[in-house]
Specification:
about 375 residues, alpha/beta, TIM Barrel, 2 domains, 8-stranded parallel beta barrel, 10 strands, about 15% strand, globular
């Protein structure tokens, strides 16, 4: 595809009335590069028709916002901007909004997020008198923000948050690694958001960089579940061009998704595809392994850089405690699980018995490093 002819398609974001590019420039990775390079990335993104940029107060303690503010000078109105705050009370939220506006050199921002909502306790603080919701609504009334978003690393908080808060859009992860153990994202959360008219922006299409060997395939896979926007952290002009090529090529067909799950080097001969060949108990066990370490720690051969990446990303969602708790509740007979695993011939060439032994050691307090 000739890159000189590529232009990102646009779509209406939920019921917001905003017409946005299907690709958004994520702000987290702007902390990794200089302001000069951020400018080149934004220039390239705009040349391809990109108009949606998201960042957050917590990205480099405001560094991402400040860099973007500098490079957007003179063209701010050509972009739809969103940022985020982790504040739970109105005063702190107001300070964050004012800092965001100062950093981005603007008097308003199209969307502002409740950032990384972790649990019900924080949601209750946000909803309480003088809580962050009160501050968010006041800022919206004053025209400082145009709409309200929600992000989290806890899946239950999306449904709770969308029920409790006047949300216009969500930011939620979507990629073919997490899809293997978190099908509720596409099966429950996406449909719930659509039913309520809430816009869906999907982050982490490359699994926090883990899917770096398959960037275009990963983008097209995530796009196939029909979020309005893919938010991708891009810290070079090459990354922008690759992402735009993928978006312009369009979403994968079901057949292409199936082929990718066979061929994806990141899934290899270890990550369970939930194909149904194993028993329901074994498939649930492997989903719990996904909660524990994203099925990244497999004790197979990897080059040093890939192994270091796995170690860094394996605990990103910090869900091992939840996985162990559910494992204990199930009270499975481990001998029966191992017997079941011994009889499985996996179509993805996974040694199911070995994987079962490793997973049990990860969840029952054993030492998987000696299995």
């Amino acid at each position: 595809m000739g890159t000189e002819k590529m232009q990102l398609p646009k779509i209406e974001l939920g019921h917001t009335g905003r017409n946005v590019s299907r690709l958004a420039l994520g702000g987290f990775h702007q902390v990794e590069i200089s302001t000069e390079i951020v400018g080149k990335v934004v220039d390239t993104f705009q040349e391809y028709g990109g108009n949606y940029i998201e960042t957050a107060r917590g990205y480099g303690n405001g560094a991402s916002e400040k860099k973007l503010g500098k490079v957007l000078a003179g063209r701010r109105e050509q972009f739809i901007l969103c940022s985020k705050s982790g504040a739970d009370n109105a005063d702190d939220l107001r300070r964050d909004i004012e800092a965001t506006l100062t950093n981005l050199k603007t008097d308003h921002i199209e969307f502002y997020y409740f950032h990384g909502l972790p649990d019900r306790d924080k949601l209750n603080k946000i909803l309480a008198p003088k809580g962050a919701l009160e501050g968010m609504l006041k800022a919206k009334e004053e025209g400082l923000i145009g709409g309200i978003g929600l992000s989290s690393h806890s899946l239950p908080m999306y449904i709770e948050g969308m029920n409790a808060l006047p949300i216009d859009l969500i930011l939620i992860w979507c990629n073919y690694l997490e899809d293997m153990y978190l099908p509720e994202i596409r099966e429950e959360i996406f449909p719930f958001a659509r039913e309520k008219g809430i816009g869906i922006t999907a982050m982490k299409p490359l699994g926090d960089g883990f899917l770096y060997r398959s960037p275009k395939q990963a983008m097209r896979y995530a796009l196939s579940y029909e979020p309005e926007v893919l938010v991708c952290g891009m810290n070079s002009t090459r990354h922008v061009t690759e992402a735009v090529e993928a978006i312009c090529q369009g979403p994968m067909t079901p057949e292409e998704r199936d082929n990718l799950l066979v061929q994806a080097p990141e899934l290899g001969k270890y990550v369970c595809r939930q194909c149904g060949k194993c028993s329901n108990d074994l498939m649930e066990l492997f989903r719990l392994e996904g909660y524990a370490d994203r099925q990244m720690i497999d004790y197979l051969e990897h080059d040093p850089a890939d192994y270091a990446l796995r170690l860094r990303l394996s605990a990103w969602f910090a869900s091992k405690e939840k996985a162990v708790s559910i494992f204990k509740e199930r009270n499975w007979d481990e001998h029966t699980l191992l017997e079941d695993a011994e009889s499985i011939i996996c179509p993805y060439h996974i040694d199911v018995l070995r994987k079962t032994r490793l997973t049990l050691a990860k969840l029952n307090g054993g030492n998987p490093n000696t299995v």
